[in-house]
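Deliverable D4.2, example record:
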Amino acid sequence: MRCAEHCEVVANRPVATNQFEIEIHCPTVALHAQPGQFVQMRVQSGYEPLFSRPFSVFRRFPERGNFSVVYLVRGAFTQMLASKKPGESVFVVGPLGNRFLVAQPANEVLHVLVAGGVGAPPLYLLAEELVQSGVPHQQVVVVNGARRQDLLICQEHFAELGVRLWTVTEDGSAGAKGKVTDVLKALHERGELSGNRCQIYTCGPTAMLEAVAKFAQKHDLPCQVSMETLMPCGMGVCLGCAVKVRTADGTDYKRACVDGPIFDAAEVVWG
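Output generated by the structure prediction step:
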């Protein structure tokens, strides 16, 4: 099921530097959104900003018909979104796109979720689903990275799930100093990652996705990436979210909004 309607803003709260979590009343999304799926949102009915924007679903509150997304304030659209107060409305279309596919048998797989900055929200929803479905906590590893401590998000939510949480920042202000791939290398050296009992899921900046994808390819590990490109329409019409992929005949393009946003990392042509 999918909604396309004006929805009430329930809360709009800061979660990190220039980052906010907006909670919205929309029972359809609250009940049916899956990990990795997104919504398209408009902040007003006029022509400025012209296009809607995609946001991955972060948390669902089915009992009260609400869901939330996290956004970074940069540009006119998100500045307007940050100004929204409880009781005001935004236009929501969703849930849209495909979802992360959980490797099976889920209880026998090490699920490694690699997040970078605002890429953490859809992975939180996945981690929550894994835990609630009965996957042992020690079989869910979350690597949460950011440039610095004040840009880390979802930390307390991941911790509340009881999963194995690794924190890494580029400046060392929280957790280990380095990059998310440094944690993957450490896990591999400890013998925890192997192709037949491991699945990597990742979301974050494109450069990070490429680095994680190349690590997975080097070690023959299955990896799914969430391509959070610009999606002006969210319906596959404008072709503004094209992702170059490998095919049997060479290369082609897929639309992140309808063919994704989740792709097999080995399928994506990077660079």
